[in-house]
Structure formats: structure tokens, C-alpha cells
Design brief:
Residues 472-483, 496-506 have a biased composition (Basic and acidic residues). The chain has 535 residues and is α+β, with helices and mostly antiparallel strands. Helix content is 55%, strand content 10%. It has 3 domains: 2-19 and 177-434, Rhopdopsin 7-helix transmembrane proteins; 26-170, Sandwich (Jelly Rolls), CATH 2.60.120; 440-525, no CATH class. The strands form 3 sheets. The chain has a 4-stranded antiparallel β-sheet with strand order 1-10-3-8, with no helix packed on it. A 4-stranded antiparallel β-sheet has the order 2-9-4-7, with no helix packed on it. A two-stranded antiparallel ribbon has the order 5-6.
């Protein structure tokens, strides 16, 4: 068990670490070793729905530069053709073709002052040299196929002189980085899906407004909150795509809404698994603990979101870990507490032989097992990604699906789990009676037969058996059948279900004696014959 909890915690931690990567759509190149090359995915115009204009990469030479600059644009598979390997075993590379390189036969005279390109120069490789004496220099590279492209720049001849070159990546759909583009339609679709869910839930709530449970009011609030969050998420990416720069206000708002949505969702799942509103009318002091954990998770979620915006993960790894660790801890606490709570609730219902409610919680338990299993699968995938994230070929080969590995699958898993929970706890006409009712406990077969034989001598039993009880019995059977197949979870029949359940099961509990006594008194009042008391 401890190993499972540890693996779950590490999975959450690694996922949050990977989510800290943020890219902009404009890059700057300088003579700093860390900023001499930048790469990005690019879409060909025919590969994007509605893509009319060409995808282009624009490289601009800043007039503040003090030296000539050699620049090169190429697709990642041609990376091995850039530069010339020299030295024992080819351990070092020469990139700029100067007079010394020409004399050493590292490059031909035609490449002088530019990048060295070995082998056959493909159409994806374009070189250009900027002259320090000229102003307003730039060149444009047109994308002819979807791929991962890089732009590099170095002083020519190679020196310590400073320069500044900006790179603008322009895709046919707008200004979004290609790695983030799928999020734009993705959040748009999610907004519409949650809006449709909200409309259906609202209609059901209005139809059964007099039978709503407290937990269903909570769920209504969560639905409204999620619709708002998804709409602002979509609005953030739409704004980014239109103006080429992320809105700080929308980014902060989305971060806070996301932290709130996750906290409220975990809280809802936890109190539902504790049996709130269905098994227990109140959680007492436990509710306060749940709220404290929810508040802590929300605060750590906001801190994490702020950290991903303000901290560069490449230069402040220990600080990033300190930001992520509390959030991963509270998330793991929620998972462990939730699984423990639903296990205890199931045990309680089985001991009390509440089969209908137990079947509902068993479905919820299977759902949680499914979600944890999916988390475990993506834990393995994220472990693989984390181990290989320093591999130079990993991002170029996986840039189109990175958004799904880091963001998409979590939202899809959340949608599935949330929809199933809403289906199980959907408003029906008998919610309150189901929540407050108790199925009469079964006795052994011997007591059942004895009780049935004694009841058969009672005129009340004859009247119940051959009178209007057939409809009641049908309602009871519908309750049990619905509990088995999951079609109507909260439907428990009409007000006479206690009598029907008593007749079918043959109970001899105190509750059954009270019900029989009550019916006997009613019949006496109506001038029926006296009914012998059942001992």
C-alpha cells in the first residue's frame, strides 16, 4: 500500500513538473551560449482547418548589433548537416565558414561568412548573412511542410561581439505557438460540452426542484464554475492567438479558476464518498477538516500557478520543486482520503444490507479505480517523458502530442469522471426519500417462512395481498431492479414502499411489527373486523 501511495505521489509530482514548461511565439537570439539557437514546431497551411496564409519564419537583425551575423534556418532532420565535425573522433564542430575554415577544407569558398553546411544541402536549409553596416535587415523563410524548425545565429567571423536577432514564428491560424495551437479548439469544444451538461442538469433540477439533495446543489455550483473556467481558458488562448501575446490578467484569472475548480472537485468527490446526503445527513466536524484541506489545496494551487508564470524552470529547479511539492502533497491526501472513505461507506452499507445504495457506491468505486488506473498509466508515460526530456530528438519527434500528454488527457479524464458522477447523482423525483430511507434488513429463511405463515392468517395481509398492493409491489421491485442495472439510481417508488418491501422480504423486525400494528389500527377505525395481534 505504501508503495502505491508513493508511486501516486511521484506521478503527480512529475506531471506538475512537466506542466511548468511555457513557450512564447517570438524568440531572441544573442551571443550568449544559451540563446544562439531556438526551435519550434510549424504547421503547413494545408494541414490546418481554414489555414489560408503561408506559415513563415521571419528573422530580424537588430541595429544595435555590433558585428556581422550568420543565420541559418533548417528542419530538425537536417540538424546533422549543420557544421563540420573536427578533431579526434569528431568530438568538436566548426559552424562558421571563415578563411581558416576554407584553407582547412572544412567548407567551400561559396559558404564564406556563413554557416557551414555539409553533404547535399536540402531545400529545408537556408543560410543568410546580416551586415552590421546596414539597417532594417530581415529575411523570411516559408514553411512547405509541417515539421520542427530551428533558427541559429553566430557572429561572423566568430568572436565575442554582441548581437541581437529576433525570430517571429507565424502559423496560418494566427500567433499561437504550434505546440499550443491544439488547446484553442480543445478548450472551445470543452466549453460547449460543459455548457450542454449544464443545460441538461438545469432542466432536471427544475423538474425535480422539490426533491434536490444538498450534494446536488453542490454539483450545480461545480458545473457553473467549470463552465466559467473552460470559457475563460478558451478566451485566453483565443486572445493569445489574435494578438500574439498572452494576457497577464486572463492568465492569472485562468490560474485562479483552475485552482478553484480542482479544489472544489476534490472536495465534492470526498464528501460524496463519505456518504454525505445519501448515507449521512451531516458529516459533523469532518466537514470542517474537508474544507480546511480544500482551502489548503486551493492556496497551493494558486502558488503553483504563480510559480509557473514567474519562475524559469531551467534556472530555478529547486525553487520550482518547493512550489510543486505542497500541491502534490495535498492532491495525494485527497486521493488517499477519498479511497479510504468510499471503502468505509461500502462496508457500512453492506453491514446494514442497503443493497441499492451499495450498488450506487460500488459503481463510484469502480470509477475511482478506473481513474487511478489511468493515472498509473500516464505515470509510466510521464516517467518515460521525464527521463527522455533531455534527449535532443524527443521534442522534435513529439511536439505535436506534447499538449495532450501535459494537459489534454487530464481534462478528458476529469470530464469522464465528472459525467459519471453526475449521472449517478442526477436529480430524480424521489431523491430525498431515497436518501432518508432504509431498506428493511433481511432475516434468515426460517424466520421468513414463519413470519409469512403467521401473516397469512391476518385479514390485513389478505387485504394487502389481493388489494391495491400490486402497484406498490411493482414500485419496490422497480427500486431493486434499478439499483441493479443502474438505470434510475434515486427512484425509490411511492409512499407505500415500506409495506411492499415488508411483504416481499417477510421481515419480523420491530419495524415490521410497527407497520402491521399501524395498519391494524387504521382498519379498526374504518369498522373492519378486528385483527389478531402478531406476536
Amino acid at each position: 500500500m505504501n508503495r502505491i501511495l508513493f508511486s501516486l505521489f511521484i506521478s503527480i509530482l512529475i506531471t506538475l513538473l512537466l506542466l511548468t514548461e511555457i513557450r512564447a511565439n517570438e524568440d531572441t537570439l544573442s551571443n550568449d551560449a544559451l540563446y544562439r539557437q531556438r526551435c519550434s514546431g510549424m504547421y503547413y497551411k494545408n494541414d490546418i482547418p481554414g489555414g489560408g496564409s503561408d506559415s513563415i519564419i521571419t528573422v530580424n537583425y537588430d541595429k544595435a548589433s555590433k558585428t556581422d551575423v550568420a543565420a541559418i534556418v533548417y528542419e530538425w532532420p537536417d540538424n546533422g548537416k549543420v557544421g563540420r565535425s573536427v578533431g579526434p573522433g569528431g568530438t568538436s564542430k566548426v559552424y562558421i565558414c571563415d578563411q581558416n575554415a576554407v584553407l582547412a577544407n572544412y567548407c567551400p569558398q561559396s559558404q564564406l561568412s556563413g554557416f557551414i553546411v555539409t553533404g547535399n544541402q536540402t531545400a529545408s536549409i537556408v543560410t543568410h548573412t546580416f551586415n552590421a553596416t546596414k539597417n532594417g535587415q530581415s529575411f523570411t523563410y516559408t514553411i512547405n511542410r509541417t515539421g520542427y524548425y530551428c533558427v541559429a545565429a553566430l557572429p561572423s567571423p566568430l568572436s565575442d561581439s554582441q548581437f541581437l536577432v529576433t525570430v517571429d514564428w507565424k502559423n496560418p491560424y494566427g500567433e499561437l505557438p504550434a505546440m499550443d495551437y491544439p488547446k484553442l479548439p480543445f478548450y472551445g469544444v470543452l466549453t460547449l460540452v460543459y455548457l450542454l451538461i449544464g443545460i441538461i442538469w438545469t432542466v432536471l433540477s427544475i423538474m425535480h426542484r422539490h426533491d434536490l439533495l444538498p450534494v446536488q446543489h453542490y454539483l450545480s455550483g461545480v458545473i457553473l464554475f467549470i463552465i466559467m473556467e473552460m470559457a475563460f481558458n478558451w478566451g485566453y488562448w483565443l486572445n493569445y492567438n489574435m494578438y500574439g501575446d498572452s494576457s497577464t490578467f486572463l492568465l492569472c484569472l485562468v490560474a485562479v479558476l483552475n485552482a478553484g475548480r480542482n479544489s472544489i472537485s476534490f472536495f465534492m468527490l470526498l464528501i460524496v464518498c463519505m456518504g454525505y446526503g445519501v448515507v449521512k445527513p451531516s458529516l459533523g466536524s469532518t466537514m470542517i477538516k474537508c474544507r480546511i484541506l480544500t482551502l489548503a489545496h486551493f492556496v497551493f494551487g494558486v502558488v503553483y500557478a504563480a510559480g509557473t508564470m514567474l519562475i524559469d524552470p531551467e534556472t530555478a529547479s529547486p525553487l520550482v520543486f518547493l512550489v510543486i511539492f505542497p500541491l502534490a502533497l495535498t492532491m495525494t491526501t485527497f486521493y488517499v482520503w477519498t479511497l479510504q472513505s468510499i471503502t468505509n461507506t461500502l462496508q457500512t452499507l453492506e453491514i446494514r444490507r442497503q443493497t441499492v445504495k451499495a450498488s450506487m457506491y460500488k459503481r463510484l468505486y469502480r470509477l475511482l479505480v478506473f481513474s487511478v488506473s489511468v493515472l498509473a498509466i500516464f505515470f509510466v508515460i510521464n516517467m518515460f517523458n521525464y527521463v527522455h526530456r533531455e534527449d535532443p530528438d524527443w521534442i522534435p519527434n513529439n511536439w505535436q502530442k506534447t499538449w495532450f500528454l501535459l494537459d489534454g488527457w487530464l481534462n478528458i479524464l476529469y470530464l469522464i469522471v465528472f459525467c459519471v458522477i453526475l449521472f449517478i447523482w442526477r436529480p430524480t423525483e424521489n431523491n430525498k426519500r431515497f436518501a432518508m430511507s432504509e431498506e428493511l434488513m433481511q432475516e434468515d429463511d426460517f424466520d421468513t417462512e414463519r413470519h409469512s405463515s403467521r401473516l397469512s392468517e391476518s385479514p390485513v395481509y389478505e387485504q394487502e395481498k389481493y388489494g391495491s398492493s400490486s402497484g406498490d409491489r411493482g414500485e419496490t421491485e422497480r427500486l431493486h431492479n434499478d439499483g441493479d442495472d443502474g438505470s434510475v439510481v434515486f427512484d425509490i417508488g411511492d409512499e407505500h414502499d415500506e409495506k411492499s418491501t415488508l411483504r416481499e422480504s417477510g421481515e419480523i423486525s420491530n419495524a415490521s411489527r410497527e407497520i402491521l400494528s399501524r395498519h391494524s389500527n387504521e382498519n379498526e377505525t374504518n369498522n373492519y373486523q378486528d385483527v389478531p395481534e402478531t406476536n
